[in-house]
Amino acid sequence: MAYIQVAVPVPLRQLFTYTHTSTLYRGVRVSVPFGPRKLVGVVVGTVLESDVEDVSKLKAIESVLDDNAVIDDVLLKMAQWLWQYYHHAPGEVLHAMLPVLLRKGESPNPEPDDMLSLTSDVESIDLSILSRAPKQKACAEALEKGDMLASAARKRFGAPAVKALVEKSVATITATIPQFKCAGWLNTMEVGEKPIPDKEQSVAIAALNRQHNSFAVSLLEGVTGSGKTEVYLQAIEPLLADGKQILILVPEIGLTPQTVSRFEKRFGIDVGVLHSQLSDKARLQVWQRARAGELGIIIGTRSAIFTPLKNPGMLIVDEEHDESFKQQDGLRYHARDLAAMRAKQHNIPLLLGSATPALESLNNALSNKYHHLQLTKRAGGAQSTHQHLLDARDQPIHYGIAQGMLSIMRQHISAGNQVLVFVNRRGYAPAMLCHHCGETVTCKRCDRPYTVHKGQNRLQCHHCSGTRAMPSNCEACHSSELVTAGTGTEQVEQGLSALFPGVKQVRIDSDSVRGKDKLHQTLEAINRQEYQLLVGTQILSKGHHFPHVTLVVVLDVDGALFSADFRAPEKLAQLVTQLAGRAGRASKPGEMWLQTHNPHHPLLQDLVNNGYGHFARLALMERKAASLPPYISQFVIRAEATDSHLAFNFLQGCKGIFNQHHAVEMNGPFPCLIEKRQGRFRFMLVCSHQKRSPLHEALRIALPFLQALPQAIKVRWSVDIDPTDFS
User: Fold this and answer.
1) What is the H or E stretch that residue 591 is in?
2) Are 667 and 634 in contact (CB under 8 A)?
3) Residues near 469 by Cβ (< 8 Å), separated by ≥ 6?
4) Which of 580, 608, 527 lies closest to 223, judged by CA?
5) pLDDT tier at 126 (50, 70, 90 boundaries)?
6) CB-side exposure of 564: number of CA atoms within 13 Å?
7) How confident is the model at residue 530 (pLDDT cuts 50, 70, 90)?
8) N or C: which end of the chain has fewer CB atoms below 10 A?
9) To 10 degrees, the CA torsion angle through 14, 16, 22, 25?
10) φ, ψ for residue 655 (rounded to 5)?
11) Which fold has domain 201-307+314-341?
């Protein structure tokens, strides 16, 4: 009889012991009884003796689902670090690391799939008949080097090309269980034409080449348009040629298609893609192929960091500063930090790239914990974007745009160029109020104004997603004089149609680009110059290449200047700098205008005159003087309840426990920046210490006492290590 420790997907910070007739491999999945339910757990280890007094009460494992581990030793070690560092339930950590279908107990082995191959008598076929069909010819030439999955061929060359080859008897499709081949891309890899790197790029590539087969973290700090992606491409080329796999994390699904396209075009190989819009089956297939070592490059969003790799060579985190790499619920991990831990365990290099590095990363680079690589000039001789402030005081405002800004926009449009107008709010207006009594139409569950969506003729709360019909009368005084306040993307789009009649425009926000490939298709249309005016939210700020945009206009930049969040200046500076990078990326010079009622604000002056690099280094000095991260460590305990007193009193109890036993600095409890959401009042307790280890030790000791507090079962509460968002 063996005692097996199993991580079960329940929100309890412990492992559970079960019995089995023999020992089991670590990392295999098992089906276990848990109360009235049957759950899929993961074996973490075997113990010789159980710490349970009456071992007869231990339950037996019902079935073993795998012959071999589905989570290898490196990922299992990473999982253990994860649940210890983030003080999270082990079962939920391992659950998050598996594809959805494996969580449900399905087989990790590949299912039968269609295989595409050249017909046996293909030598008798004259392939010149395909000369007028380049995609068919390219597919046939690829098949000459070896068979490939029909699904992969359709993705790479298009379904019509594959169908035509079969109809012409050039290729055949047979149902078979795919045999994944480790480093299979070596048979098809053909490095395409590449530009000669400039001096700074060459230095960065050479430095990265020296790091092969050893752990090192490098920060590539390159201004927007400086050719960071080209550095990635040339740095991974020798690794791919050596049969090593590359895992690349990107912040947004919207960036994935263009990034994938560029890597596929350069190396002529199949690139694995992982993001939330894929089906469960598609995600499992990429997981299987990466695990078998068949895929050389895997590109994905945050959770792709858990992808198993047979022969890893390098990890890359692109736009490493982006907030989306931090999970904000459940297991609140940061993919950038996890990438560093994983690279260390694999003994491979990690490359972090950004034009606006997070202050944590920049501090590590400046203190020599990371290698610091810099690209200070734009690639291809493109000029830096000139940044200006437009004083909106005393100017007529049309649809949120100052009169002076309209004149500048007309100049660029008249020259046949594109203009990008950034508005940090989707919808028509952020509020609706009564012109007679001033009452605002408010979401009762969140105590926040509804956002007006005129296109749908609805009001929507952007905090709980609740909607309601557009009212015709004020609920307080019954006046019919309801007006909107503030400006959103819908209103700017409508206003620009009136101000620039005949000029084609497109709006890009999460409302307008819903649906598969909608964003990708819109971006391609922009680069074909089908539109001259682009109106959008932060979706437009991240990494996109717009060669014909020569003017970026930022409306209402003042909103972020007066936030209670100490990270707000950093986030604003990153956003402004990233937006500036969308202009003047090709041969045309670009400029950016920030519309503000506070033109003398020191943050704006520093950004416009000195750039992000100077701002960030100054911000680090301010953080150090104020004893704020990255110079201290923090965690936040959040609590929420329908009764505000319950949440507040629970956190007061937490504070008492820490004050009683530990020398940890406590701030709060105080309301979260969004105090009420979905009918629940939200409070937080911020805990700090100069060093990380005493902070974590204090939390580890305190957690059982926190769980035993009488209010603990009456409120929703969570622990957030290294928080980045206080809303």
Assistant:
1) strand 591-596
2) no
3) 457, 458, 459
4) 580
5) low
6) 8
7) very high
8) N
9) -40
10) -60, -40
11) Rossmann fold (3.40.50)
Per-residue pLDDT, 267:
94
In CATH terms, 382-426+487-623 corresponds, of 3.90.1200.10, 3.30.830.10, 3.40.47.10, 3.40.50.300, to 3.40.50.300
Spatial distance between the Cα atoms of 379 and 227, rounded to a whole number of angstroms: 6
Fold match flag (2-103 vs 201-307+314-341): no
Per-residue pLDDT reduced to its tens digit, 56-92: 788 999 999 999 999 999 999 999 999 999 999 999 9
| List of residues 6+ apart from 67 with CB closer than 8 A | 28
Asked if 533 and 503 count as a contact pair (C-beta separation under 8 A), the reply is yes
Q: What percent of the chain has pLDDT over 70?
A: 98
**Phi and psi torsions of 388, nearest 5°:** -140, 155
| Phi, psi dihedral angles at 197 (to 5 degrees) | -65, 150
The one-letter amino acid code at 425 reads: R
3-state DSSP assignment of residue 159: helix
Give me the CATH topology for the region 2-103. Answer: GIY-YIG endonuclease (3.40.1440)
Beta strand 29-34 with 63-64: parallel, antiparallel or unpaired?
antiparallel
> Which two three-digit tokens encode residue 282?
């598609």
CA angle 169-172-178, nearest 5°?
165
Q: Is 582 helix (H, G, I), strand (E, B) or coil?
A: coil
Burial 391-406 (b: 16+ CB within 10 A, else e): ebeebeeebbbbeebb
Q: What pLDDT band is residue 543 in, cutting at 50, 70 and 90? A: low
- Spatial distance between the Cα atoms of 302 and 335, rounded to a whole number of angstroms: 6
DSSP symbol at 169: T
Cβ atoms of 300 and 339 within 8 Å: the answer is: no
pLDDT tens-digit readout, 235-282: 999 999 999 999 999 998 766 677 888 899 999 898 999 988 888 988
148, 114, 516, 102: which is closest to 284 by C-alpha? 102
In angstroms, the CA 411 to CA 419 distance is 10
Judge whether 183 and 296 are in contact, CB under 8 Å.
yes
Q: Which residues contact 411 (CB under 8 A, 6 or more apart)?
A: none
Helix 134-144 × helix 150-157 angle, to 10°: 140
pLDDT score for 239: 96
**Rounded to the nearest 5 degrees, what angle is found at the Cα of 518, between the Cα atoms of 464 and 494?**
70
Contact 425, 472 (CB under 8 A): no
SS3 content of the chain, % helix, strand, coil (to 5): 35, 25, 40
Determine the Cα–Cα distance for residues 588 and 690; give it in Å rounded to an integer: 49
Superfamily classification of domain 633-721? Ribosomal protein S10 (3.30.70.600)
The amino acid present at 376, given as its one-letter code, is T
Q: Which residues of 345-384 are buried (b: 16+ CB within 10 A; e: fewer)?
A: bbebbbbbbbbbbbbbbbbbbeeeebbbbebebbbeebeb
Which of 110, 92, 77, 84 shows the shortest CA–CA distance to 40?
Answer: 92
Q: Which DSSP symbol is given to 560? A: G
Other beta carbons within 10 angstroms of residue 675's beta carbon come to 17
β-pairing verdict for 458-460 and 451-453: antiparallel
Residue matched to tokens 């929703």: 716
Contact call for residues 462 and 450 (beta carbons, < 8 A): no
Q: Are 293 and 329 in contact (CB under 8 A)?
A: no
First to last CA, the chain: 51
pLDDT digits (tens, 9 = 90+) for 88-109: 999 999 999 999 999 999 989 8
pLDDT of residue 123: 59
Single out the residue of 106, 48, 44, 50 nearest to residue 79, CA to CA: 44
Closest CA to 140 of 120, 155, 161: 161
Using CA atoms of 114, 118, 120, 123 in order, give the dihedral in degrees to the nearest 10.
170
